[in-house]
């Protein structure tokens, strides 16, 4: 119990792995937390998931939605880029190999708040090296369908749906930074989402993207609706 009589916060280890429990025990003790293997009724401080387990990604996504303020950490035994990216897309705040999990989680717990906006990986930076114009369309993201472009040195992304009638904008013609809707001819600046010509009467939503650690990702701002 805490000094005020309330129960301690928890680190929920979803798979009950004995070796992981031993690794996390000193981390939990350092922050006054309890390590539990049964799903807690109160929001945990952190959730630790073996992402190679059955239905792990589905469960991870459910916990992310249920406990938005918890640190969701996934670990795996062997390097698997495809799984790694899938874990990030499912809502994990961090994903790493088993041996590094305790250290990485300690780093996150040491921060007073969650470490800024979450990243949603789109593709490997090597896949778009040297390319210009439309780089790809991504149907399933937390902000809906997104089209990624490179205009000069700048990577930019917009919602891939025309605000006028819902046409797929990435199927239209791109001239410099100006994208023309293939259905009714509305035009938008893909760098900012600005509407340049109707019949659309508003901009298309722009989205922040970053290239880091060999990966291009959407930046998901928790304060943005």
Walk me through the structure.
This protein has 225 residues and is of the alpha/beta class. It has 4 helices and 16 strands. It folds into 2 domains: 10-115, Response regulator (Rossmann fold), CATH 3.40.50; 122-220, 3-layer Sandwich (Rieske Iron-sulfur Protein). Helix 1 (18-30) runs parallel beside helix 4. The chain starts with 9 loop residues before the first strand and ends in a 5-residue tail after the last strand.
Architecture blueprint of SSEs:
Elements: E1 10-13, H1 18-30, E2 34-36, E3 46-50, H2 56-66, E4 71-76, H3 81-89, E5 94-97, H4 101-109, E6 118-124, E7 133-138, E8 146-151, E9 154-159, E10 173-175, E11 178-180, E12 187-189, E13 195-197, E14 206-207, E15 209-212, E16 215-220
Parallel strand pairs: 1-2, 1-3, 3-4, 4-5
Antiparallel strand pairs: 6-16, 7-8, 8-9, 9-14, 10-11, 11-12, 12-13, 15-16
Descriptors for this entry?
single chain, 225 residues, Rossmann fold, Rieske Iron-sulfur Protein, 2 domains, 4 helices, 16 strands
Give a quick summary of the entry.
This protein has 225 residues and is an alpha/beta fold. The chain has helices at 18-30, 56-66, 81-89, 101-109; strands spanning 10-13, 34-36, 46-50, 71-76, 94-97, 118-124, 133-138, 146-151, 154-159, 173-175, 178-180, 187-189, 195-197, 206-207, 209-212, 215-220. A 5-stranded parallel β-sheet has the order 2-1-3-4-5, with helices on both faces. Strands 7-8-9-14 form a 4-stranded antiparallel β-sheet, with no helix packed on it.
The fold-level CATH name of the largest domain is: Rossmann fold
- Note the overall shape: elongated
CATH superfamily of the largest domain: Response regulator
Helix content: 10-25%
Radius of gyration: 21 Å
Q: Number of helical segments?
A: 4
CATH class of the largest domain: Alpha Beta
State the total count of DSSP E strands: 16
The string of secondary-structure elements, in order, is EHEEHEHEHEEEEEEEEEEE
What's the average pLDDT?
A: 87
N-end to C-end Cα span: 37 Å
Uncertain residue ranges: 1-7
Structural class, by secondary structure, is alpha/beta
DSSP strand content: 25-35%
**How do the strands line up in the largest sheet?**
2-1-3-4-5
Number of domains: 2
User: What's the CATH architecture of the largest domain?
Assistant: 3-Layer(aba) Sandwich
- In this structure, how is the largest beta sheet organized? 5 strands, parallel
